Model the fold of this input.
Amino acid sequence: MMKAEGIVGIEQFASPGKGRGLRVSRAYGVGELLFSCPAYSYVLSVNERGLICEQCFTRKKGLAKCGKCKKAFYCNVNCQKKNWPMHKLECHAMCTFGENWCPSETVRLVARIIARLRDQKERSPSEKLLLLKDMEAHTEELDNEKREMTEAHIAGLHHFYSKHLDFPDHQDLLTLFSQVHCNGFTVEDEELSNLGLAIFPDIALMNHSCCPNVIITYRGVNAEVRAVQEISPGQEIYISYIDLLYPTEDRIERLRDAYYFSCDCKECTSKSMDMVKMKVRKLSDEISQKDTRDMVRYARNVMEDFRRAKREKSPAELLEMCELSIDKMSTVFDDSNIYILHMMYQAMGICLFMENYDGAVRYGEKVIKPYTVLYPAYSLNIASMYLKMGRLYIALDRKSTGISALQKALAIMEVVHGKDHTYVMELKQEILGE
Done:
């Protein structure tokens, strides 16, 4: 009953030194779709409620809300009915708990996975190559901090979902949370806003490279895999698990921490971009290596502090944090140094949130040019940046500058999302409308 049906043009194989992997059995050109995978389970982020349908993730105005909890929104009755087995896990609880209903997105996703596993009779279309239960978990490699976090998740699961679910035993829950931690995907829109969390077993088979030859984008609750480089028959396909802006040492640390492996791709072995990414100012008196090392340490700490501060500080305080750190780093680093870019990107986000569009444009203009050099050619980070900038320019009555930015976004999006994607069609309309 659970035999794998496979995916045309794609095969699973043992990748030397990497465990399981996927490779192609034919050639693929840039922008070509290799395969698509429906989410096995998924959950819409609480922040997106009312803007996007809980069932199909369609973004549109005038969604209808659930009559009971008034918190979930749908395209129509059809979407609502289809979503009920999952929404049922939360609808009553949200009414009962009221303001105190606050499970994490991870807990919400795991509850849905447990419900789906319970009712699943046969292999799902998300598991053409790999069953959910066979996904990598790395449970034995959890450090204390991660174990504590998982225990907190398990407590949250019991607290908010015990009425509608029977839970597997503790060890199985640990495994399931670890699997979601290593294999969960954040579903993002064209501006890279977080729409929700999902699990795609077949996608989880792909290994990582810092020079990926495919990219994942989303069409509703389907993940699509497209070529961003020419791929020859027999070649392994690689996605990137992480943001590729950062230098090798940071990437390796991030991959080891989150995914428990060391990357040996050509960028990690050659470190060819590190000099450009870590650029220092051209000052008459040479900046010593110690100054640079100290400033890198400061930059990494400030990034971490900022991540924490986002939860408790006001936008004004956060913006000040960005400004102070940028000033300090500028004494040693060039403006295109990725640590400065990181804080400028954060500052831009805060300005957008505060509706300070002039400030947002000012930061965006400093970020966009280096981005086009530091990221791979077909990058969502570059596309989403051009998109935000284009929309900002237009809002500030700088129409022609805006349109030219939107056109640059479109050129990348046609490759990574496909020419027939809603985002691409909507953007074309947006450009024509201006």
Summary: The two ends are 54 Å apart (CA to CA). The chain has 14 helices and twelve strands.
